Amino acid sequence: MTISLEQRIKETNERASRMRENKTFFYLKSIEGSSGPRVHIDGREMIMFASYNYLGLISHPRVKEAAKRAIDEYGTGAAGVRLLAGTTKAHEELEEKIAQFKKTEDAITYSSGYVTNLAAITTLCQRGDLVIMDKLDHASIIDGCMLSGANHRSFLHNNMESLENILAQAEHYQNKLIAVDAVYSMDGDIANLPELSRLAKKYNAKLMVDEAHSIGVIGETGHGIEEHFGLENSVDIYMGTLSKTIPSIGGYLTGNKDLISFLKLSSRPFIFSASLPPVAVVTAKACFEVIESEPELVKQLQRNIKHFREGLKKLGYNTGQSQTAIVPIMVGEEEKTLQLCRIVNEEGVFICPILFPAVPKGTNRLRAHVLATHTPEDIEKALHIFEQAGKSLGII
Q1: What totals of helices (H) and strands (E) does the chain contain, helices first?
Q2: Is residue 136 within 8 Å of 187, Cβ to Cβ?
Q3: 60-293: which CATH topology?
Q4: How many Å apart are CA 239 and CA 351, to the nearest integer?
Q5: Alpha carbon distance 179, 358 (integer Å)
Q6: Closest by alpha carbon to 252, among 284, 220, 277, 229?
């Protein structure tokens, strides 16, 4: 039975009001100044564990200087869509840089990561095609499937037997696309790329990998999932964002020249959306350059991830299968999850709860994001706060 829009609005706002009354509404907080390992919120300094600024590039001198120069050269916008009047030399240089970074022939950029996944799936797939997704894929992949009109099926999370069962029954589809996250945004685990690539080739399917949370995080030098597994040419379409490790705005797809040319001439979000501002484009390019020239940032992030995750495990917390900068702190019950979040926030750790329906029922959690710029003292202080809070609530 469906309910009215008015009823949905009422229920959502009432839930938020109850959370505000109980001091458990942790969302839409205003951060004063730039986002770093420590931030000021409501007049208090807090250790930041909710940011995607994995390598700390938001405040990197080289990145900031590039942005300032771009404003002087290009102004504040590109004044058009890319096909008509919105392409600048900066856009071309960024796409060349992304293609080089991912070892592909070409790249295309879009106005956001969400729009990038919509663009990829709605352009590459249509009625009569099949998209196969991991159950824990980004919402934008799911929405892209629904908008495309293609048939879509989900396999059990990172379960290659489940995926192969679907592929084995889908041989009558001429066009098949497997779409997965490289790093899963709620669990921090990594897709099984060797098997995904093998099955895609076996069943004549294309493989698209969303690297929103993997660039700058996994792989010896932060180049992502193929580097992590020591593979090359195992992915047909790479997707990534320009708003996480790369602290600008937008998203990208990379692949062979024919594919990217087709997308530039056919994808509606590219054709009908205004161009990314050149300042955002130049900022993103500078970030890729810093990742390549300062590999120690990636090493520091990976050390901090290990320090924080192993510290939580020693305390008795369940961090799931996380191997990356996303570290879920599994609680289960919604009320206890909110209580844990309230205590640690009061003690100086800024982190947000992830609740049903964003995650399956009974898997409510806090989602921590580890940064390269966290000091050992930041991590130790956070672990101490989690220890005291967890013990007070009987979680550990």
Answers
A1: 14, 14
A2: yes
A3: Aspartate Aminotransferase; domain 2 (3.40.640)
A4: 27
A5: 19
A6: 284
For residue 180, report the phi and psi dihedrals to the nearest 5 degrees. Answer: -135, 160
> How many residues can be counted in the chain?
396
d(CA 192, CA 231): 12
Residue 164 belongs to what H/E stretch?
helix 160-168
pTM of the model: 0.94
5: its two tokens: 């829009």
Q: How far apart are CA 338 and CA 360, in angstroms?
A: 16
Residues identified as active-site: 185, 213, 244
b (16+ CB within 10 A) / e for 231-244: eeebbbbbbbbbbb
In order along its 396 residues, the chain shows pLDDT tens digits of: 788 999 999 999 999 999 899 888 989 999 998 999 999 999 999 999 999 999 999 999 999 999 999 999 999 999 999 999 999 999 999 999 999 999 999 999 999 999 999 999 999 999 999 999 999 999 999 999 999 999 999 999 999 999 999 999 999 999 999 999 999 999 999 999 999 999 999 999 999 999 999 999 999 999 999 999 999 999 999 999 999 999 999 999 999 999 999 999 999 999 999 999 999 999 999 999 999 999 999 999 999 999 999 999 999 999 999 999 999 999 999 999 999 999 999 999 999 999 999 999 999 999 999 999 999 999 999 999 999 999 999 999
H or E segment and range at residue 241: strand 237-241
Q: Where in the chain is the domain with CATH 3.90.1150.10?
A: 17-48+295-393
Which residues on adjacent β-strands are paired with residue 393? none
Separation between Cα atoms, residue 123 and residue 261, nearest integer Å: 12
Gap between the Cα atoms of 91 and 250, Å rounded:
12
Yes or no: say if 153 and 166 are a contact pair by the CB < 8 Å rule.
Answer: yes
Residue range 17-48+295-393 in CATH 3.30.750.24: no
| 17 token code pair | 């009001």
Task: Quote the DSSP letter at residue 84.
Answer: T
Give CATH 3.40.640.10 domain extents, the chain.
60-293
What is the C-alpha separation between 246 and 289, in angstroms, rounded? 10
